[in-house]
Predict the 3D structure of the following.
Amino acid sequence: MSPLAISFLPTPASTATPSASGGSSSGGALLRRTPRVLAIAGSDPSGGAGIQADLKSIAANGGYGMAAITALTAQNTRGVRAVHVPPADFLTAQLEAISDDISVDAVKIGMLGDSAVIAAVRGWLQKSRPAVVVLDPVMVATSGDRLLQEAAEAELRELLPLADLVTPNLAELAMLLNEPLAGDWEAALAQGKRLAAQAGTTVLVKGGHLDGGACPDALVNTEGLLGQDVVVVPGERITTRNSHGTGCSLSSAMATAQARLGDWEASLREVKPWLQGALREAEALEVGTGNGPVHHFHHLAPKGADAPAEGQFAAVLRQDAGPDLDDIYGLDFIRALADGTLTEQHFAYYLAQDAIYLNGYSRVLSRAAAIAPTEAEQLFWARAAQQCLEVESELHRTWLSTRKVDAGLGPVTKSYVDHLLASSVSGSYGVLVAAVLPCFWLYAEVGATLHGQFLAAGSPASHPYAGWLRTYADEEFAAATREAVRIADAAARAASGTERQAMRTAFRQSCRYEVDFFDAPRLHAAPQRVSQPVG
């Protein structure tokens, strides 16, 4: 990353400014009041799914949870033993007691059990419909147990148009369409489009039950003048047996986020990393011997006595970066840049790739700003993202537009940006911060060395890259780097041991890409293999 992208950054305060509501403010979303979210669903005595999962998800995503219970189940992590559906009139009494007294901002509807219960919910929606309605059409549990009477399937289909978002798993998606189960992502998307068109509502197609390392989700809207709008949010698959209640958790979290944000795509991009983290940390709960629950409060859980002391994790990362810094100093590009013998062709290619990289890097920094835990960190990453775009524009105006440059996307640049984007959807703020850190830290160290060599040579005016080298001496550049290191160190202290290891892996891979990036002009002339992910 160009040092200019950092040199204009002000150093933010290290503490957040309290908002009027008692929390940290960061734009309209965090200034909204806590949404009041009602979950209408069945009960799971083991706590992993149903109402219990809903209330945890709502709280974990910033809402105030309420519950109207549609069914009682006897179940645990190994399966459902029995289901009891109370009289529908009692469900109506629960719903009316809530809406007669409390303004409901969003409702999540889950297990409904039978036709009478569906009719009761329909009647309540027609009289007291909240602004946000999410329907999780619970028909089959993750364990394979049926949770809706077959005779009630037609009534459930008729309920779909009353929802703003429908969140079926793949089995339920096929059942709602009376079609075979989708075998791949493209088939699942096609079914999602058909259901959205039939129901006249938005469908969240979930890739969690498909095979492979990727785990995408997609929002499929109804048919419009320009066809159906499909927004795919990629993600990595978390390998775990503890996925009990993921559908309940996702749908209630989406209802809560939508009540705060008012945008389904923004809600999904916020909720998906949270759920990935809940899956990743689920084993720490040690609940049950079967398909255990996810860890809804993974981001708040105490991290134990093994948390590193202040500065300790940063020292580990600096040690990890040592071999890569040595490799950078040994590159012909760096040596030629320092002594002024670097060809303009090589330097121009480097700048062209830098401009492309900064565009992708700004998106990743924006993601860091969106999920940062404090206002100070939100502002830091947001300003960094803005500066990346400004520097990209400046590079085009002052250099790239006046020279003939190969401005195509290079393989190293693509691999590096892809790595950063994958880190941004990992579900971990710490992993994301660790991945972006080398672009600050390694550049700062390399730049200080290059500038020192430039001064030792008497700062010759004839040096073709004198202006470039002087930018490394900017104190704001150094201060921003120190702040980025501090943020990464603080994130590590708040992380679990598993997450800290993932942070180190992401950091080391970014360090390796920094080496390749400096070497890219030579690779462009004689293509070689791009570094593979560090294990």
